[in-house]
Amino acid sequence: MNKELDFVKEMFDKIAHRYDFLNRLLSLRQDVVWRTQMVQAAAPARGSRILDVACGTCDVALEVSRHLRGRTRITGLDFSFAMLNAGRKKRFQNANQSISLVNGDALWLPFAPGTFDAIFIAFGIRNIMDRHRALSQFHTVLKKGGKLAVLELTTPQSTVFKKIYLAYFKKILPIIGALFSRHAHAYHYLPASVLYFPAPTAFAGLMSDAGFDHVRFKQMTFGIVTLFVGTRT
Known about the structure:
Radius of gyration: 17 Å
Oligomer: single chain
Structural class: alpha/beta
CATH architecture: 3-Layer(aba) Sandwich
Number of strands: 7
Shape: globular
Strand content: 15-25%
Helix content: 40-55%
CATH topology: Rossmann fold
């Protein structure tokens, strides 16, 4: 494991206990709306095999389960034990037995080719430096006709809103994050990771390069979040 990956893993281990609270606070609960739209866009069928990569505290996995009324098999994968532990507690609180959790790396998925009908990754792809390899891994473990849905924070294109957004992101968000999580560096890392993430057209191109067809994207909430969907044909 390289030093950069060690750093990111340690960061998420440290903020796991406040992760959900801060997501809701910093997004004004829009993260709940974004995840719902993500699941609806992929439109998984009941009985599907679902993989939630960088599952964190299982927000996406639980949303999929609610959407399909528990009639599916969901695997959540994350490299942070603390995040998985938080997800395990939420799964128990929701009495949800359809979600199994795996400690693993998105670059080395421990699954056979053609295992899943749909793959979701929310707010995780920007933390993976070798995105082409990760996308290729997703493509490999998807069945033909399977869909990949990626939800990620992006930089708004509107000049006026971009200035407001960057002021909030660079100055206010780190203060709030540090106050509640007691891990100041994590909420300085967040703005930097978003600013270095490719523009939507460029990331859609990466998905196409990894073998996905019918790639489309939708910018939401003035462009601060983008939803990407592609299909393995």
